């Protein structure tokens, strides 16, 4: 028997349950999860607003753990290995994996509506015979020796944000990634002023709260920066924030990178002249990192202290979980 926090219904409190976890099948491993966290994307799917509801479900795609057993054909991992599950994969053989530019693996790329294993289309989790879906893909794992405070974040949040800036918004030197890349001014935009102090530790130098202004935030940013920012990175998934993030970049050279997961029915609307004026709109998935090839080195970077990781001040009991 294993213990899991199960979401039985959209938006309802998670319930700690004893669940069964079937043994790993061919090319799968079973991981004892030691740490997990809920990122914004999990909360989004938990609320199921504008997304396909998939319940019951175990959230926590950001995690760290130890391989407990391996299935047939697994040669690169063994019981006892420290691993991070990642929500996407890298088969190393498809067109995407062979392309230097893409990390959108044909075989193992994310499918948020699936919630089951690729091999046989079944879940490995169940409660009294009822299958439970999962956000994790136990096929995509990599070794990492990291401080505990940062482990789970490397499996999603840190890699996504860092890669969006270092790999996609390049070459100008958005917050932790922008600091590492040497940006001189980093402007954080958030509706929640309590985040501002924390963001300073990640290198954000100035703050804009759209609520403090009567005009659109893209106009505020353009005025602060003599026509627009060089690079912008949008992480919330709110479509209006995405549009602002695009419209706030400077004409001629500005690049906007979208990271956040939008609602199912959202549409991105902007005047074509914003593109014709030589602004670039890009999107990224998992920071453009190939999970098996790239994450071990970026996690070493995190482990070496190059990436700022304050002990989390986030406590589930204070967030109504
Ligand atoms: Zn592939
Ligand atoms: Zn995540």
From TrEMBL:
<dbReference type="GO" id="GO:0005829">
    <property type="term" value="C:cytosol"/>
</dbReference>
<feature type="domain" description="Alcohol dehydrogenase-like N-terminal">
    <location>
        <begin position="26"/>
        <end position="109"/>
    </location>
</feature>
<keyword id="KW-0520">NAD</keyword>
<comment type="subunit">
    <text>Homodimer.</text>
</comment>
<dbReference type="GO" id="GO:0051903">
    <property type="term" value="F:S-(hydroxymethyl)glutathione dehydrogenase [NAD(P)+] activity"/>
</dbReference>
<feature type="domain" description="Alcohol dehydrogenase-like C-terminal">
    <location>
        <begin position="174"/>
        <end position="295"/>
    </location>
</feature>
<comment type="similarity">
    <text>Belongs to the zinc-containing alcohol dehydrogenase family.</text>
</comment>
<dbReference type="InterPro" id="IPR011032">
    <property type="entry name" value="GroES-like_sf"/>
</dbReference>
<keyword id="KW-0862">Zinc</keyword>
<dbReference type="GO" id="GO:0004022">
    <property type="term" value="F:alcohol dehydrogenase (NAD+) activity"/>
</dbReference>
<feature type="compositionally biased region" description="Polar residues">
    <location>
        <begin position="310"/>
        <end position="321"/>
    </location>
</feature>
<protein>
    <recommendedName>
        <fullName>Alcohol dehydrogenase 1</fullName>
        <ecNumber>1.1.1.1</ecNumber>
    </recommendedName>
</protein>
<feature type="region of interest" description="Disordered">
    <location>
        <begin position="292"/>
        <end position="321"/>
    </location>
</feature>
<dbReference type="Pfam" id="PF08240">
    <property type="entry name" value="ADH_N"/>
</dbReference>
<dbReference type="InterPro" id="IPR013149">
    <property type="entry name" value="ADH-like_C"/>
</dbReference>
<keyword id="KW-0963">Cytoplasm</keyword>
<keyword id="KW-0560">Oxidoreductase</keyword>
<dbReference type="Pfam" id="PF00107">
    <property type="entry name" value="ADH_zinc_N"/>
</dbReference>
<dbReference type="InterPro" id="IPR036291">
    <property type="entry name" value="NAD(P)-bd_dom_sf"/>
</dbReference>
<dbReference type="GO" id="GO:0046294">
    <property type="term" value="P:formaldehyde catabolic process"/>
</dbReference>
<dbReference type="InterPro" id="IPR013154">
    <property type="entry name" value="ADH-like_N"/>
</dbReference>
<dbReference type="InterPro" id="IPR002328">
    <property type="entry name" value="ADH_Zn_CS"/>
</dbReference>
<keyword id="KW-0479">Metal-binding</keyword>
<dbReference type="GO" id="GO:0008270">
    <property type="term" value="F:zinc ion binding"/>
</dbReference>
């Amino acid at each position: 028997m294993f213990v899991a926090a199960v979401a039985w219904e959209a938006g309802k409190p998670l319930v700690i349950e004893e669940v069964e976890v079937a043994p790993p099948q061919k090319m799968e491993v079973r991981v004892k999860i030691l740490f997990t966290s809920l990122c914004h994307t999990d909360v989004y799917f938990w609320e199921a607003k504008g997304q396909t509801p998939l319940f019951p479900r175990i959230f926590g795609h950001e995690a760290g753990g130890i391989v407990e057993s391996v299935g047939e054909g697994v040669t690169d991992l063994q019981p006892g290995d420290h691993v991070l599950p990642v929500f996407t994969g890298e088969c190393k053989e498809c067109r995407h994996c062979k392309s230097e530019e893409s990390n959108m693996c044909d075989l193992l790329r994310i499918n948020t509506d699936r919630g089951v294993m690729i091999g046989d289309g079944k879940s490995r989790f169940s409660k009294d015979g009822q299958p439970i879906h999962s956000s994790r893909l136990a096929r995509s794992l990599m070794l990492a020796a990291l401080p505990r405070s940062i482990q789970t974040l490397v499996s999603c949040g840190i890699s996504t944000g860092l890669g969006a800036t270092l790999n996609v918004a390049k070459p100008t030197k958005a917050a932790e990634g922008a600091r590492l890349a040497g940006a001189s001014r980093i402007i954080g935009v958030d509706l929640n002023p309590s985040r501002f102090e924390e963001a300073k530790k990640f290198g954000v130098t100035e703050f804009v709260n759209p609520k403090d202004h009567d005009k659109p935030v893209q106009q505020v940013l353009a005025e602060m920066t003599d026509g627009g920012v060089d690079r912008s990175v949008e992480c919330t998934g709110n479509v209006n924030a995405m549009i602002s993030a695009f419209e706030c970049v400077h004409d001629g050279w500005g690049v906007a990178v979208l990271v956040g997961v939008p609602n199912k029915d959202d549409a991105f609307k902007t005047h074509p002249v914003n593109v014709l004026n030589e602004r670039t709109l890009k999107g990224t998935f998992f920071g453009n990192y190939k999970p098996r090839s790239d994450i071990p080195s970026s996690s070493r970077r995190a482990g070496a202290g190059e990436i700022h990781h304050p002990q989390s001040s986030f406590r589930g009991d204070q967030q109504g979980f």
